Amino acid sequence: MSRTTCPYCGVGCGVRATPLGDRTLKIEGDPDHPANRGKLCSKGTHLGETVGLGGRLLHPMIAGKRASWDKALDLVARCLQETIAKHGPDSVAFYISGQLLTEDYYVANKLMKGFIGSGNIDTNSRLCMSSAVAGHVRAFGEDVVPAGYDDLDQADLFVLVGSNTAWCHPIVYQRMQAAREKRGAKLVVIDPRRTETCEDADLHLAIRPGSDVALMNGLLAHALRAGLVDLAYLEASVSVPQGFWDIVGQGSDLWSVARICDVSPEQLLRFYELFAAHPRTVTLFSQGINQALRGTDQVNAIINVHLATGRIGKPGAAPFSITGQPNAMGGREVGGLASTLAAHMDFTPDHVARVGRFWSAPRMATKPGLKAVEMFRAVEEGRIKAIWVMATNPAVSMPDANRVRDALAACPFVVVSDVMADTDTGRFAHVRLPAAAWAEKDGTVTNSERRISRQRQVLPLPGETKPDWWIVKETAARMGWASAFAYEGPADIYREHARLSAYENRGERLFNLRRHAAIGNHAYEAMEPTRWGRLPFAHGRFPTPDGKARLVSTVQAALPERLKDWPLTLNTGRYRDQWHTMTRTGLSPKLARHREEPLVEINPDDAERLGLKEGDIARVATPQGQSLFRVQPSEGQRRGEIFTPIHWTGRQSTGGRTGLLPRPLTDPHSGQPGFKSTPATIEKVEIEWRAFLILRGEAVAATLPPALWATRITVSGGALYELAGTGDDKLLDGWLPAGARVEAADPARGSRRIAVIVDDRLAAVLFLTRTGELPGRDWLIAQLDAPQVAPTLLAGRAPGAQPDCGPVICVCLDIGLKTIVGAIVEQELTDVAAIGKAIGAGTNCGSCRPALARILAETVTNAAKIHAVE
Q1: What phi and psi, each to the nearest 5 degrees, are found at residue 102?
Q2: Were 485 and a residue from 148, 253, 473, 569 both cysteine, which residue would form a disulfide, CB within 3.0 to 4.6 Å?
Q3: For position 642, what pLDDT does the model report?
Q4: How many CA atoms lie within 13 A of 752 on its CB side?
């Protein structure tokens, strides 16, 4: 058994992973890890389903052909050197990832900024939390998150802003829920959408997208009027710019703020009153704040409230940025962003000189590099001639992704280090380098509360895969810098990282790992989770020249009017059980059950007005591009706004390509793209037939069937394809493997059903209809593993009546809707805890508990209506 760390969100949960042979793992939460205390969300629970070798990149590839490591790395080093010699150091760039370990990040950053001599290294964390970084630096002088998970145990009020925490950070959400149950803490959710996080909230403010500055300035103006501003704390610890209070007060009366935010004055006043009544307030914010064109101002508007009321540096009181990736914080610590140097230093001359001395760098970068959107624009314009992408998929995840694809296609030299053999970005690579995956990596990560945890190797490196740090250091050696990158293992890198954090640091930077600067290999291997800066601002002193924090004047920007040609507003985000572009979670049959296809969520009134019904195929378009989605009416959507998920790629679906849609516009301070408010349209796509195809594992291909709508879903034993289209449906027959065919047809309904039998076992089924209904998929999927073919195969169901469990609600324990409703009715269950006790639903990660509460309420209401009629 190895104690390691989950590779998903920034909660940083501890995991106990036990190899069971044949690359299978038993996964448990680590009860001794302070971040999760043994709990895991659905994604972490099913990590064992994602460590197989299917689809893995196992050997270096040059121009699509297998190559040796020596040949591949010699080519990378030579092309980088030639490009630098001909066009200068700023003609090359690295685009890296919060999926990297701190040691990987450190080596890549050192090579680019200290030896190549350019700042052109940026990370996909730019897309999720760089506005928080910029806001922290403006307010505190350093990128320091002033809160920890212990604060959640002591807070009396939680304010969640732009965060569907129940889905995206389930363990944090359950910790808050435990505080509510134990201590009566209150919960306010501020989000344009009514998400699962809102289900049990004391107050939900469904504000207009982009009105967060007005909301927080209004709260601060109310705090001033109500005597909640801590004048003594401001005098001692905070610098207030001239005219700050005049700016805050402009248009911040209750009615003006309510009008701007599009909420009722009564709701707004309720929020103010809750804030006033609970001094121990933790405000947690995430992508809904950061991914905005004024994201940094929104961050500072939140921090202003906490600084002005003295709700910082105290247990249970702080603004708290919760990061999206497992090592977004570690990347910030080593300078993975183009706008920073290592160890929380920036590009001031003294910092540049200090880092240069420490590294003995031959040509230190002296200015910030290009941020993510700027970087790919420079690739498009030909200013960047060589780019190395590590552990991320910008051809899917960047805004205006078609433009990114065009840029990569035209770039003279593209290197991709990745785990998977076929990614949307990897298809543009001249050189592909096989990197170690989560269970094969060794190093450290830092979570949202600044806690450093060990990630330990659980499985051997397959094929010729190598750790990312090794790939970079070997490239550096071939470029002539072997002695500066003479690392034998991750412990060597971590020690150097720790020494740099302490180098010439006399307390002006709070980030300081001095106690680990001489850590031995054995101590590194045995390292327990450790947090730096336990309560960093407890004494009211900040890492600024005068020791004071700064209030930052923020003004609500004019909100855009609805455009005639683009009358809707597109919001984007995550699903509960998927991660980024699904290169890992997409391998898990269990995780696929929650949301099998990419949906566009739309208010029912808008859907009716536009002639859209549940299950329709719709085209969502923006000025940047378009993609197809399955329609899902949702009362949680504000009128005039739609929502799509970020996860689907061209490898998994002909639709769901959310990255094609957002504008490539960024926050002026952080460079973070604004994913949350893109002008859009939606229209129904007429289809002539619907179908599904199920293939056993060996028949599953890397491409998609020829259909207007085709989405591949991993299932036990193979893959399920949901299909829809127009014209000739016979093209699908070519996707069926060779074998004995059993067929049935209903010409009146335009229905066809085909099964393929190989060696007396089911190899494939195709069910298609033009006017009729299609049967459920679960029983047919189960037949992939059946020892013999059932006689009722083409009926799509087992002989006799079989129970239908309904769509899966609790993914951890595989419990369906109808099972839950049946238990509520038959056992007269009255609360979520009773449901868990009766059938187990919601007792593992708890992320389905809001859904259980909603199902319970709906079931009770429906039962009451039936009783009233009777």
Answers
A1: -55, -40
A2: 473
A3: 98
A4: 17
Both tokens of 88, joined, read: 């200068």
Nearest 10 degrees: Cα torsion 609, 614, 616, 620: 60
446: Cβ contacts below 8 Å, ≥ 6 apart: 12, 102, 327, 329, 330, 333, 452, 453
Tokens 């009566």 locate to 184
Which residue carries 């920036």 as its tokens?
Answer: 346
Mean pLDDT along residues 761-771: 95
Query: Quick check: 693 and 706 in contact, CB under 8 A?
Result: no
- What percent of the chain clears pLDDT 90, i.e. is strictly above it? 84
Identify which of 641, 613, 647, 610 has the alpha carbon closest to the alpha carbon of residue 627.
647
Q: Within 262-397, where are the H helices?
A: 265-277, 287-290, 295-308, 328-334, 349-359, 372-381, 394-397
Residues 6+ apart with CB under 8 A from 135: 296, 299, 300, 302, 303, 552, 670
Beta strand 568-573 pairing with 678-685 = antiparallel
In this prediction, residues 437-445 reach a mean pLDDT of 97
Contact 644, 656 (CB under 8 A): yes
Q: Please say if the pLDDT value at position 864 is more than 70.
A: no
Q: Quick check: 179 and 185 in contact, CB under 8 A? A: yes
pLDDT confidence band for 787 (50 / 70 / 90)? confident
- Amino acid symbol at 364: M
Q: Per-residue pLDDT tens for 339-394?
A: 999 999 999 999 999 999 999 999 999 999 999 999 999 999 999 999 999 999 99
Does pLDDT of 869 surpass 60? no
pLDDT higher than threshold 80 for residue 799:
no
Instruction: Report pTM.
Output: 0.94
Token pair 């397959």: residue: 462
Q: What is the CA radius of gyration of the chain?
A: 27
SS3 state of residue 829: coil
- Say which DSSP state 412 is in: S
Q: Quote the CA–CA distance of 123 and 137 in Å, as a whole number.
A: 18
Token look-up 């003004």 returns 555
Q: How far apart are CA 654 and CA 659, in angstroms?
A: 13
Is the separation of the CB atoms in 491 and 497 below 8 Å? no
